């Protein structure tokens, strides 16, 4: 039975990634608490698990006190009694007596078992939290395990565990079925108190598109091209500002790729969403003018640190503003400037 117990710890470490040392520590604590149910709440118990010998032993500890000074019989023993057991015991020392665990009642054993199960759950939650933390702000590929037809949420198998992609975090208009592989952005990880880490997955976050570009464009990966900003209306339009640190490298061309291969790979992930790739500029007027793409701007006047006035030809006004003001809003969000557009 002891061999099976320690083999189970080895299997737990291999399959769940829960270290044997961690489990031994938790099991020793669980067994000690279970033993106290039998011999008294104030009893000091020491549990010793020895993986090398595949051995488990339980000891009750009592402090040796002067004769007549025993206050708690569960935790103390008179010097004369201790001497009668072994003359090596001294005043203030600890006397240990081995307990036979097979004599403990079923209720105590069940309590110990529940504590061990809880320790496994705690370790699993801690492992998952650490793994998700290492993936924060990253894009991962998950598999749709369940589609909740009542609210549209997706239960995803992320490889680390199961997490929910809320309907509000899905690109408007997209649909998924069980078994589909889907890319998601891990935007937030919180420690759950009872049911594991609380992971926020998203496909509408602006950084989802940013990370897709970083994964698809080698020049961004090696730092030659920098992404200076992203603004997004998921499912409709994204504006991304890029800058080249090498005068021989075209930042926009690098993001589009030969025959649009890189851009098309990103668009295949986010559907029919339009992407405006804009060249970043340290000159605010130039940056704002570019951000209003695809509209052509005639002039930009900076009125103060965060406000500017833009003029366009009458035929470009509706394009500069965009449907329901979308183009102007995304440009303002990208540049950080309040933009007043006039024909």
Topology overview:
Layout: H1 2-16, H2 20-39, E1 44-50, E2 55-65, E3 76-78, H3 79-85, E4 94-99, H4 106-134, E5 139-147, E6 154-157, E7 162-165, E8 181-190, E9 198-202, H5 206-216, H6 218-221, E10 225-233, E11 237-244, H7 251-256, H8 261-270, E12 274-279, H9 284-291, E13 299-304, E14 307-311, H10 317-321, H11 326-335, E15 338-342
Parallel strand pairs: 2-3, 11-12, 14-15
Antiparallel strand pairs: 1-2, 2-4, 5-6, 5-8, 6-7, 8-9, 10-11, 13-14
Helix pairs in contact: 2-4, 5-8, 9-11
In words, what does this structure look like?
The chain has 343 residues and is of the alpha+beta class. The chain has four domains: 2-124, NusA, N-terminal domain (N Utilization Substance Protein A, Chain:P, domain 4, 2-Layer Sandwich), CATH 3.30.1480; 136-202, Beta Barrel (OB fold (Dihydrolipoamide Acetyltransferase, E2P)), CATH 2.40.50.140; 205-280, K homology (KH) domain (GMP Synthetase, Chain A, domain 3, 2-Layer Sandwich); 283-343, 2-Layer Sandwich (GMP Synthetase, Chain A, domain 3), CATH 3.30.300.20. Helices cover 36% and strands 29% of the residues. The chain is elongated, with a radius of gyration of 33 Å. The termini are far apart.
Strand percentage: 25-35%
Contiguous uncertain segments of 5+ residues: none
Strand line-up of the largest beta sheet:
7-6-5-8-9
* CATH homologous group name of the largest domain: NusA, N-terminal domain
At CATH level 3, the topology of the largest domain is N Utilization Substance Protein A, Chain:P, domain 4
In CATH, the architecture of the largest domain is 2-Layer Sandwich
Q: In terms of structural class, how would the helical and strand content be classed?
A: alpha+beta
Please report the number of helical segments: 11
Main sheet characteristics? 5 strands, antiparallel
Count the strands?
A: 15
């Amino acid at each position: 039975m002891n061999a099976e117990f320690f083999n189970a710890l080895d299997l737990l470490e291999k399959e769940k990634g829960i270290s044997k040392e961690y489990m031994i520590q938790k099991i020793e604590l669980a067994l000690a608490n279970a033993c106290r149910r039998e011999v008294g709440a104030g009893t000091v118990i020491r549990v010793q698990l020895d993986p090398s010998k595949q051995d488990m032993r339980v000891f009750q500890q009592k402090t040796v006190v002067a004769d007549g000074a025993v206050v708690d019989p569960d935790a103390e023993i008179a010097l004369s009694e201790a001497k009668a057991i072994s003359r090596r015991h001294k005043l203030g020392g600890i006397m240990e007596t081995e307990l036979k665990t097979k004599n403990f009642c079923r209720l105590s054993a069940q309590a110990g078992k529940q504590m061990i199960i809880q320790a496994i759950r705690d370790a699993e939650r801690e492992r998952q939290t650490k793994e998700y933390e290492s993936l924060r702000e990253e894009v991962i590929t998950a598999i749709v395990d369940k589609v909740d037809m009542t609210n549209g949420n997706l239960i995803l198998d992320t490889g680390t565990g199961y997490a929910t992609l809320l309907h509000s975090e899905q690109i408007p208009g997209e649909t998924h079925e069980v078994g589909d592989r889907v890319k998601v952005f891990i935007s937030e990880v919180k420690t759950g108190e009872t049911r594991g880490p609380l992971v926020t997955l998203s496909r509408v976050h602006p950084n989802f598109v940013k990370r897709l570009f970083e994964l698809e464009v080698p020049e961004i990966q090696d730092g030659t091209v920098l992404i200076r900003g992203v603004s997004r209306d998921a499912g409709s339009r994204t504006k991304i500002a890029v800058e080249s640190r090498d005068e021989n490298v075209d930042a926009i061309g690098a993001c589009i790729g030969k025959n649009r291969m890189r851009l098309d790979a990103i668009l295949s992930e986010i559907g029919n969403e339009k992407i405006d790739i804009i060249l970043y500029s340290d000159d605010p007027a130039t940056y704002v003018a570019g951000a209003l793409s695809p509209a052509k701007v005639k002039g930009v006047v900076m009125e103060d640190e965060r406000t500017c006035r833009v003029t366009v030809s009458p035929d470009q006004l509706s394009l500069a503003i965009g449907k329901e003001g979308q183009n102007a809003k995304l440009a303002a969000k990208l540049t950080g400037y309040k933009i007043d557009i006039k024909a």
